[in-house]
Amino acid sequence: AGAETVKRAVQLDAASRFQESLVCYQEGIDLLLQVVKATTDEAKKHRYRQKISEYMTRAEDIKKHIEKEKQDGKYHKQIRIEENATGFGYEKLFHEYLTEIVSEVWVEDPYIRQVHQASRYSLYNFLRFCEMLVKGPCKVKTIHLLTSYDAGSGRSHQISVLEEIKQSLSNYGITLNIDFSSSIHDREIRFNNGWMIKIGRGLDYFKKPQGHFSIGYCDFDLRPCHETTVDVFHTKHTKKM
């Protein structure tokens, strides 16, 4: 298993898919270290240690390369969420980008509106996203939301729910600034530590739960997803709305 994993790492490395190759190198190295511990043949141990040393050196070089890309504002990682995939709750998706220095967040999504649409729970999803920010480890002080008005009679309900979320966040020392645009199309989330995440479906990439008491209703990690693509960038300067 260790040999297959590092073989995959080398292939990804050659294809310049550095973030994925680094993960495979790290997993492969851990597996090979377990093999070394279980091997009694000293000659084999020596060969394994040589290869492990080579892989560790390459992994360290890739780490430096990725860090330089971040510093230069050229970092890009793409995550493909397959149809009906699970394990993509907000905490899992965003945790590595929510460092302790994050204090300001921008959410741009035209569909943070009606709760009772047939397949959309966008206002609940936004609330769940805010709950994740409240839990930390970041110390968010301000959230900026840019969305579009709901049509017809749904507008008053949309505004009422957002105002309720705003008031609730204020109890945790967090200010929610809400703006509306009739021309907004893009969906992206930005943190003031330089990370920007673009999700094809915005925050609304989860499928409708089968029932109010079905597995996945409360825990988003267990909720099946719609197929979508997540693009992660790192920029030196996070633009503001």
UniProtKB/TrEMBL annotation:
Q: Which CDD domains match?
A: MIT_1, MIT_C
Pfam family name, one: MIT_C
Domain spans labelled MIT: 1-71
Looking up SMART domains in the UniProt record yields: MIT
Name of the protein this chain belongs to: MITD1 protein
